[in-house]
Amino acid sequence: MKTNLYNYILELADNCLIAGQRLGELCGHGPNLETDIACTNISLDLFGQTRGYFQYAAELKGEDKTEDDIAFLRIEREYKNVLLVEQPNRDFAYTIARQYLFDVYHLLLLEKLQFSQDMTLSAIAKKSIKEVSYHVRFTGDWVKRLGDGTEISHEKMQNAIDGLWTYTNELFEVTEDAKIMAEEGIGVDVSVLKDVYYEKVTALLQEATLTVPASKYFQKGGKSGIHTEHMGYILADMQYMQRAYPNMKW
Amino acid sequence: MEKNWPLWEIFVRSKNGLEHRHFGSLHAADAEMALENARDVYTRRSEGVSIWVVESKDITASNPENNGELFEPAHDKVYRHPTFYTLPDEIKHM
User: ipTM of the assembly?
Assistant: First the structure.
């Protein structure tokens, strides 16, 4: 099996999976009907992308593995998502800020990944770009609305940005697998996206009358499987059905 | 601040060449948000290629109480319908 490629696919897919799972938690609990549907739509887009990646990974893995095995039957240390996407929905501002900080990165990544030498990854990226362009528009709009809204909405959005900022730098960490994939023209060297990412985010935060955090202390670990305390709860929720009723299907 | 967002009427064009049709209504803080909400609420199953949003308060509606004077006089004027012509068979969908 092409282990580097397999691991790299999981890196890409787990971000979508866990971000989608977090948004999916809001299904039926959004601030109002319209926003609830919007968040759930984004969640479904992300799950769709995840399936594309996992089906490919399952094919590489062989051993009769399916996309479901990869999604539901790994242990916490085997998930490679960044810490940012597993952060909880403390309030609507947190949900939007988390998703926005991920979306900007996600779009930059896909814009490069569409030129991958790997046909499957390139195809998934091309399909996802349209979806993610909308995600960043939706969440970016809400960051502006809340930031430049009322005193309370401004305060909540600023808190969310301050709280999540420490997880942004990890997006640009290059793992050993990703490095090899980038050298082969299959993966993307995400470290080169860093400057343009912070430029874009800074410009939007300023437009939203928010303060860009000055902190230079950043958390990392997700990409190598060292997660925050929230990850176990997500997996317990997500994996319950497959663990309790193995091979159960809808 | 208004606690509730205003109501918007949503018009969606299903295909190029067809007219926009009223699909329903939703709440949004402004026109831009109304468009995004409409996209998510009404076109998530590929129902449309174009969306119009109009704030409900900007629509002037006829009063149902006036239905008598507005519409009933037309009931006995069958000659206003183009039903007195014989249409050639070749013309379909009239």
Answer: 0.72
